[in-house]
Amino acid sequence: MHRLRTTVARLRPITATQTAKSQSQARPAAVGGALRTYEPMRSYAASVSAKPFLSGTSSNYVEEMYYAWLENPSSVHKSWDIFFRNANAGAPPGAAYQSPPPLGGAALGLANAQAMVGAQPNMEKLVEDHLAVQSLVRSYQVRGHHIAKLDPLDISVIDFDEAPVMLGLKKVGFYGLDESDLDKVFRLPTTTFIGGSESALPLREIISRLEMAYCQSIGVEFMFINDMEQCQWIRQRFERPGVMQFTLEEKRTLLTRMVRSTRFEEFLQRKWSSEKRFGLEGCESLIPALKTIIDKSSMNGVESIIMGMPHRGRLNVLANVIRKELDQIFCQFDSKLEAADEGSGDVKYHLGMWHRRINRVTDRNITLSLMANPSHLEAVDPVVQGKTKAEQFYSGDTEGKRVMSILLHGDAAFAGQGVVYETFHLSDLPSYTTHGTVHVVVNNQIGFTTDPRVARSSSYPTDVAKVVNAPIFHVNADDPEAVMYVCNVAAEWRATFHKDVVVDLVCYRRNGHNEMDEPMFTQPLMYKQIKKQKGVLQKYSEKLLAEGAVTRQDYEEEIAKYDKICEEAHARSKDEKILHIKHWLDSPWPGFFNVDGQPKSMTSLSTGLPEEELGHIGHIASSVPVEDFTIHGGLSRILKGRAVMVGQRVCDWALGEYMAFGSLLKEGTHIRLSGQDVERGTFSHRHHVLHDQNVDKRICIPMNHISPNQAPYTVCNSSLSEYGVLGFELGFAMASPNALVLWEAQFGDFHNTAQCIIDQFICPGQAKWVRQNGIVLLLPHGMEGMGPEHSSARPERFLQMCNEDPDAYPKFSAEEFAVRQLYDCNWIIVNCSTPANYFHVLRRQILQPFRKPLIVFTPKSLLRHPEAKSSFDDMLPGTHFQRLIPDSGPVCEKPEGVKRIVFCTGKVYYELTRERNNRGMDDTVAIARIEQLSPFPFDQVKVETHRYPNADLVWCQEEHKNQGYYDYVKPRLRTTVDCTRPVWYAGRGPAAAPATGNKAAHLVELQHFLDTAFNLDAFTFIP
């Protein structure tokens, strides 16, 4: 209760959190009978709170003071002591106040206090006036931004959907004050810093200073933050008199940056007036804003900054923030430029850049990385956060002091895209936090052509940031000094509290959505105003000229200097005939692709392990390597079952995964597995994190006990997000090729809500941005008769996006066939049917000499299927991933007598073998499993078809005909056999839903396609 030791003239507002806390605490028995007065006190509190000047907070405050008085009367000021004694004695509401003792006077003794009990109040207005001033201060802090001068166009249409804001000299009556009080001196509450070194000010001056702090070019939203220290920190930076002052050198630097930002756009407009470039006109102050954040962060020790942004202003940021060579930017406008690198490339305003340079303000090295990204707005947000987290992890930066992220947003997308919320929601999660991001919103006050009034339900586009208590600094982008100050504060906030912060640059878009668009169609009034609007550079230069900070000659020389730089770069750009996209790489992996200056070998390596290593990892997987650790009884049975398997030299799916992970960790490869409930596993099969049944939050991760010098294993349950979390893991995987990063969907079809990351980043990432990535997607898949949801991971979607030609047989040597195929593909798609093959494909992902995304359709029922087990023999040195598993049964004895070969993939293999055994057709029907679907194993399929020259070819799948693998596999099978033999289909017919919701119907469908697969007369070839 030490916070309550205060005078009436220094009343502090009590936050909702503090009130709830105080109300939830049991009162000590020592106050005894005094508690009988609590209910009367509610009426007192209600009578006080009914007064308009207290804005509904005083009721809680009076109750809090009352509790403090009950516990210790001397803990409150004597005036409150008298008030509560009067109230306890039955004084009516409004008659219990007494005048406080004179400031500096002698302490009021208990006898004097008692003598005053029952006396009629004669200073009630004084008390009320001080409370009114407290409420007035708070109103400016809460709502001052409502009347701040934020819009450069002065046409803001923000509707706060509230009563008129009662702020200003003429509104003091709302607080119980009148004009005669304006020149009275009031002591300032401790919740404001407007007085500087002064503790009391006239009311007129109080209001003037509050308006200077909260109602000019900066609007601050922070009073929703429930941390008093953070609120006070912000108040200090905006309320102290004279805080927003700059030196002559700072003003000149700011002008120089404004010149570069503005003249860059004007240069592009002159040279390529008919080209789309998504220029920055109307928000040229973004460039000095970003450079200010970078400068301040560098001063605070940051060495690496990862940035993400939409297309508007990207070229300017590349040129003037990242410092990309101008000639490299200008040459991109040449339509005759030839691509030197593989892949499709991307448009210039989607490309990224990585650059390490000296920060001229701090003279320290800093690495700047602007991530490449598509037009899908905000999709890059979680990717940036993941890469930032990875860099922090690999550099041991556990507090985010050396590596940080900056995210740029558009106003419409910030409010409209759900991934923004998903990304914010990761900001404080232990395995995902990047210890604070600076968000900069380029607030055009318009979408493409959509007015904010129909584009969002919130007053500001930035309201989503309140979900994580991030302070929001709105600033008029036509006031560069205000922008600079706000960005300094934002960077300092991030360095101090390591939490997110938002800078809302309220600006306008001088042109349409792009330079070819006509905005007058839809926003005629706005664009009439914009046409009359002076540019921000012109306004700021006039200001500095008037101040005498610069001369006209200095200003014109600065412009001429940068124009010359642009012209010279333009001349050099004409010599560029070839575009090297690798120069735009945003995530380089130095030293990975070469060994001693030579490219890595393209031959297959064994991914097997020695028997003793398998046994050692199996022992760890079946034990609890921590003493006095109590695990669940059911888990004890699972671990004992693992121990039995190890003794029998076999493994199931979970143990095969354990073997792969454990061996890679032992070899120094960091592994990160995340997703919803991955620690235990959706199907309760994994159990990589053990929980002590007697000690809360005590856990054990056996995988981190495999070897003394092993790499760390990170396994973390994610928030219930797919889009945000998959983007985060993709970004994490970008940072280093020497890590196995896996994202597991709770069910395979959950990737639907992360489709943007898959379609725009994972599938075409290398083709567009020459950026390899080894992320692994684990997608549980299989028809178990449980309904249409969570049955299918939609393999047809992934297969459709493969870049392999189905009509061309690859021309590689036999030794390099498998590896060359992998090198040329855009991603790898597998559906393993054995734990050993799953083990090998995970190890291959790291041991191969390049990185490709890996899509694994993982099983559900096979996790515990008695036949879905692998011998250690299949995992020993010399073994490797089998792209195709041929039939090894009786059909091998007389292959010429085999009448049918059934190709399949995944779980359906076990249903086929069971049906074949039941029908006694083990010697007439061969079953081959295609484990790697993409790239397609043409060479091995060819071997199988030649082995059975008299057999017809059938593709069998449990998925519907228009889904699954059929449309992908059929043309490739035909290419393999040169169309000399037809390829038949056995499976479910076409359907809109992935599966039936009726178990009986599921079984009927299953039996039907099994009958088709084994009815040798089902297909009649018609020439």
Automatic annotation (TrEMBL):
One of its GO terms (cellular component) is mitochondrion. Residues 1-31 are annotated as: Disordered. It is found in: Mitochondrion; Nucleus. It catalyses: N(6)-[(R)-lipoyl]-L-lysyl-[protein] + 2-oxoglutarate + H(+) = N(6)-[(R)-S(8)-succinyldihydrolipoyl]-L-lysyl-[protein] + CO2. One of its GO terms (molecular function) is oxoglutarate dehydrogenase (succinyl-transferring) activity. Keywords: Calcium, Glycolysis, Isopeptide bond, Magnesium, Metal-binding, Mitochondrion, Nucleus, Oxidoreductase, Thiamine pyrophosphate, Transit peptide, Ubl conjugation. Transmembrane segments: none annotated. It comes from the Eukaryota. Belongs to the alpha-ketoglutarate dehydrogenase family. This is 2-oxoglutarate dehydrogenase complex component E1. It comes from Coregonus suidteri. The lineage of its organism: Eukaryota, Metazoa, Chordata, Craniata, Vertebrata.
